[in-house]
Amino acid sequence: MQHRAKKKFGQNFLKDLGYVNKIVQSIPNIFKGERVVEIGVGLGDLTDKLLEFYQLKAYEVDSDLCSFLLQKYKAPIASEDLVLVCQDVLELPLKEGWLDDKEYILVSNLPYYIASTILLRVLRDPKCRGFVVMTQKEVAQKFCAKNGDRNFCALSVITQTLGESEMLFDVPGEAFEPIPKVTSSVFRIRKNNNLIQSGFEEMLRVAFCAPRKKLFSNLANRYDKKILQDLFDELSIELDIRAHQIPATIYHQIYNNLKVEKYGKQ
């Protein structure tokens, strides 16, 4: 099929089959037999490989591509090995089982411009057990950063709360058509059974509002300084520490002490 990539959909088709194979080989053995969801089928190179091993539910927003894919995958659609959904995933209602009613894993070359939004939603979705995805390298680094890394941010804390992340490998622009101007990276997250407490992400936004400033100064924009001073002393947190320097576990301890209503500024 001759299909010109559409910039509005962030289309860069992965054509190097060596990297396609590496992505599929990166799916952990604990996920064998799981239902796989793919977002952004494109011309189907990754889809072809996934269908060799998994039942697949795939989303494609481009109506022109959908017409092609419905013909290309007529047989696996008829056998119910593939469910093809021609829809923008961001228009799906936010609920448990956001991408599928059954437990699933996400395996995708995600469009750069919506990758973070999609990954936050699947991280929060109890039906999603994990994912192996390709994104812009800078996005992957944020999801996989450890405290002390310069990329450590609120996304990193949320990821560490809900699962274990691992950077796998980079994919150069030459592996795509058209060639993107950035390097891509594949990373993997295996989720645990933890949930994010209501209000925790709001506290993280305050904590990281100025990432290179002192954590105490950031939190003091929202919380009482005297309470913060006592809390930092109790948790043995230095007053000059930066937001990216402390681990996710400490952020939960901070939140558990600050979530009482009287701790917030009126």
UniProtKB/TrEMBL annotation:
Q: Which SUPFAM superfamilies is this protein grouped with?
A: S-adenosyl-L-methionine-dependent methyltransferases
Q: What is the reaction catalyzed?
A: adenosine(1518)/adenosine(1519) in 16S rRNA + 4 S-adenosyl-L-methionine = N(6)-dimethyladenosine(1518)/N(6)-dimethyladenosine(1519) in 16S rRNA + 4 S-adenosyl-L-homocysteine + 4 H(+)
What is the predominant subcellular site recorded for this chain?
cytoplasm
GO cellular component, alphabetical, reads:
cytosol
Where in or outside the cell it occurs: the entry states:
Cytoplasm
Domain Ribosomal RNA adenine methylase transferase N-terminal: from-to ranges: 19-193
Q: What class of enzyme is it?
A: transferase
- Summarize the protein's role: Specifically dimethylates two adjacent adenosines (A1518 and A1519) in the loop of a conserved hairpin near the 3'-end of 16S rRNA in the 30S particle. May play a critical role in biogenesis of 30S subunits.
Protein name per Swiss-Prot or TrEMBL: Ribosomal RNA small subunit methyltransferase A
Q: Which organism is it from?
A: Helicobacter cappadocius
